[in-house]
Specification:
Blueprint: E1 16-23, E2 28-34, E3 40-42, H1 56-67, H2 72-79, H3 83-104, E4 108-121, E5 128-136, E6 141-148, H4 152-165, E7 166-176, H5 181-190, E8 195-204, E9 207-217, H6 220-229, H7 239-250, H8 258-275, E10 282-283, E11 286-287, H9 290-293, H10 303-309, H11 313-319
Parallel strand pairs: 4-7, 7-8
Antiparallel strand pairs: 1-2, 2-3, 4-5, 5-6, 8-9, 10-11
This protein binds zinc ion.
């Protein structure tokens, strides 16, 4: 059987021929040449591994360590590379993850949604910022994320993003905490075509002393019927989004600069949805990832698969122009 040749990362065409090898430290890598545009390339051209000075495993390992909560200094020490290298790798990986998330997180079915805001900070603790997230309860998929101030506009952005990505059931069930902007945003976006409830927890000395549940869009009766039908919730609750919040907090969800925090969250979102099997999604021996449960993929993915799945040519052109010489034959 003929091996399928890659398409050209420069022009996207498929008329490609084998074009010798390039020498690596311990091995060699097949090069290809594109007939229509005449450029040569190898399988890493245009990917995050482009001109990587060490093994791809090391790059993937840095990403995995970051996702499991190791900071950049820790990763640098463990992998014996400099802090700057780790920072550069992670920002490349994050851009790739964002691209992947944007492409893949769509056309999944949603019946029940929970949303919440996590207070965090950028730089010093005096500069609070919010990570506003939504989760599709049935699959545990985390499709949408907004970083910024806790405002009506950002809440609306979150739901607009979610509703454009997902195939919503006719009357979705949405639950949040008691922040009043949600009601406004949902009324505006869905014109009342949903069931919306809030769970307001009163805390005293870090302990929940009272839980107040109220229905804000839809009738009590319709809500009771929806909860009766729900596979995941018996009562109005926010426990699924709280579990996700914990994952985000542990990863650690703060940074010296907002840009770094956004990058970290993009990579984390990709890791959470596609790579790490979710403890609550155990079916016999199989532990699924949220993306599997949502029907977007059939297996847990690896960083390698994600980083080689899409070529980031457009992205690389804008952010890493200096690393690439598109016209040269060594690209
Ligand atoms: Zn080409």
């Amino acid at each position: 059987m003929l091996q399928k040749l890659p398409s050209c990362p420069f022009c996207g065409k498929h008329r490609v021929v084998r074009h010798g090898f390039s020498k690596l430290k311990r091995s060699r890598r097949r090069r290809y040449r594109c007939r229509p545009c005449g450029r040569s390339f190898c399988t890493t051209t245009g990917s995050v591994y482009h001109r990587l000075q060490c093994s791809q495993n090391k790059f993937d390992m840095a990403c995995a360590l970051s996702m499991e909560g190791t900071n950049k200094s820790g990763i640098a020490r463990l992998l014996k590379v400099t802090w700057n290298t780790v920072a550069r790798w992670l920002s490349r990986a994050a851009a790739a993850a964002k691209h992947f998330n944007d492409k893949k997180l769509k056309d999944f079915h949603v019946q029940e949604v929970q949303a919440d805001e996590i207070r965090t900070f950028v730089g010093s603790k005096s500069r609070p910022t919010w990570i506003i997230v939504a989760i599709a309860v049935g699959s545990r998929l985390w499709p949408s994320l907004v970083l910024g101030r806790r405002t009506y506009r950002n809440i609306r952005t979150l739901f607009t993003d979610l509703f454009t990505r997902a195939q919503m059931s006719e009357v979705p069930l949405i639950t949040t905490d008691g922040y009043n902007r949600y009601t406004l945003a949902l009324k505006h976006l869905l014109k009342g075509a949903c069931l919306y409830g809030q769970v307001v927890k009163t805390r005293r000395k870090d302990r929940v002393v009272a839980v107040d549940r109220k229905v804000l869009i839809g009738t009590e009766r319709a809500m009771a019927a929806a909860l009766e039908n729900s596979e995941d919730s018996e009562k109005l609750n926010t426990s699924f989004i709280e579990r996700l919040n914990l994952t985000i907090r542990r990863s650690p969800a703060h940074a010296r600069e907002g840009e770094h925090l956004k990058a970290h969250l993009d990579l984390l979102q990709c890791y959470y949805n596609f790579i790490r099997p979710h403890g609550a999604l155990k079916f016999g021996r199989e532990i699924r990832t949220p993306a599997m449960q949502a029907g977007l993929v059939t297996k847990p993915l690896t960083f390698r698969q994600i980083f080689t799945a899409v070529l980031f040519w457009a992205w690389i052109c804008s952010s890493f122009r200096s690393h690439l010489r598109p016209v040269s034959n060594n690209g």
